[in-house]
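Troubleshooting log. The previous run stalled partway through. Resubmitting the same two chains, unchanged.
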Amino acid sequence: MVIRIQDLKKSFHNRAVIDGISIDVTKGDLVAIIGPSGCGKSTLLRCINGLETSDAGSVEVFGTELKSPSEIGQKEFQKRSLTVRQKVGMVFQNFNLFPHLTILENLIKAPMVVSQVSKTDAETKARELLKKVGLADKAHHYPDQISGGQQQRAAIARALAMNPEILLYDEPTSALDPALVQEVLRVMKQLDQEGMTQLVVTHEMRFARDVADRIVFVDHGKIVEMGSPEEIFGNPQDPRTKNFLRHFL
Amino acid sequence: MMKFLLLSLILVLSTSAFAAKAKLRWGGDIESGAPFAYTSPDDEDKLIGFEAEIVELLAKDLDMEVQFVQNSWDGLIEGLNRGDYDIVVNGVEITSDRAEVVNFSQPYYYTSETLAVRKTTNDISALEHLKDKKVGTLDASLAQRILSEQKFPIQIVGYDEEMHAYSDLALGRTQAVLLDEPIALYYAKPNTDLKLVGGPIGYMEYGIVTRKNDPAFSEKIRASLQKLIATGKIQEILERWGMWNEMTAKAWGKDTAPLTKPIAYYKFLETAAGKKTWKEKIQKYIDFLPKLLKGAVMTLEISVISMALAMFLGLLTALCRLYGNAPVRWLALTYVEIFRGTPLLIQLYLIFYGLPHVGISLEPMVAAILGLGLNYGACEAENYRAGILSIPRTQMDASAALGMNWYQSLRHIILPQAIRVVIPPVTNDFIALLKDSSLVSVISMVELTTIYGQLASTHFDYLGLGILTAAVYFIIGLPFVKLSRYFERKIMTASPQIVHEAPEKEEAEPVKTAVAAE
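Second attempt completed without errors. Output:
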């Protein structure tokens, strides 16, 4: 068990966005979190690495337990968040590459600043990763000089540069032209084959069905249904799941 | 403590008594020009004028050495009380208001106000003719007080430079000018378009100003002046400057007829009227350059150090406002609002002349840098804040997700981007500061504008010197504008979103992954 989410709750302006969610993630899993927009999927993801605070419940990542700051104190929350982020990388919908740095610099910045890796070592590793995601020739380009799909692959490489054990994806292909989606999904699929633990909030149902080990369907801040792709796509139990999937498949 | 002070006082006094030549620190504003005290047109480093000569005599009599300290006229008394110099001899009229805060010697000159009009004006020769007329005078002068105390309405136009008051009169912008007799004598009488009319108006006495807290020194000055008056030495000076008048003669029980020719006055008129060829003029301007450059160096020094302080304060304040807790945010906001919302001039006055009243006396240079730095720091804070706010929050998310703490994110991700945004407004502010630094002349700093004023009042060349000084400001600002352009360009190449370089054509491409290739 690498992630254990227990009865997590979070409200914005008295509206429950996450309303008692519990998920266990085992090593090497690819978990796809699906559901209608605004159902709390992104917030759930951001609670895992402490970018968002929860109101109640807990998230345990490799033994580090994140609880609401009111329970463990703001300082302790920040401290534990930093610990969690050492093991958990994140990929954003809009890539969030650093526009003032080249792709290579985007990759080596955090290893050098956070992990005190030497520039030479960081660059060697970064070039390996860029080769892996097919961007070896874009090392010295700036983010705005490459396409969206390339940017997202660079963002994945940037997350990988910190040697994470888990990757979180927040709708990684939603901002991409349909034609560019596959190149990103292919990288994720490859990482899955290599044994990376991945949590993906996505609307790519085909990808979820073909690659995910587990599907979590969330609606109104609650888990409606959870199971293998065969169970969820082949034989959905809840009418809300059926209704939702009808729009996609 | 008291004992210690007393002891050190005795030490200071005794050392000054035994020193070869003690300094007689004399405060004045040489921009006030002839005949009071001004730089010699022949030697830019020499002070001349009837007051310069009186001070020289006093020093000789007291076996001291004159050390001149420049300050703007309005700040002369405050500067004296701060201890920047020990006497003021610069056309300061003895009034009961001033006598409350400083000591005055007996008068060294008695004079009055004199009306000047255009040659063609025939209906003005006394105060009562000024009803509904536009009358020029110097700000905060006795003449202005007299004009404002009249029962009938007068449109008073205040100037801070006597030359301008008279040139405006000649141009027809005003109908009369009321000013001190010596000023009228030097600036209106030689002007062929103007004439002096009517008898003396009002009555005033110029006195030597000393601090109240040193009555012994005040008495020494008084005794020395008395000796100089009695021996006729002061009279001789006044006569040479063409200023010997009935009032002074009467007060000292002397004959009104002068004994000496007004040589200094003639010399002044010669210089003032001197028509110069273009060649001579250009030679003159070249002669001015070293002095202007000295002022420019001071201006640059003040500006660069102030700006460095402002940028540091600005960044600190912006960070406090954005990321501090409630009291820190409130403090930062208060600082910004107060220093941005009040005039720089008032801040300079408060820092230099106000703080000594609560026991904090700063050097002019320190006060100037602090004043400019604090004022511009408030502006820079807003620049930086805007710059930081312009960076999307998602950048902070991304760096946090990579494990950077708040400081690392700020240092490596947010600020490098924000600084690109603020380079143009910060450059703009630096140029503004460069120009605003001319304000520090009010706290006895001698910088470019002060030098301009001094030269202009000696050579009466407001046009040529004005252009020359403006050019110097422009030129010293230029390298900084260029530098910021250079940085901007450098950044542009490093941030293609500003270059508008078209991104590569978006098209799906097969991922050439290392593994997939196997």
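Takeaways: Chain A touches chain B through 47 residues (CB under 8 Å). Chain A is about 40% helix and 25% strand.
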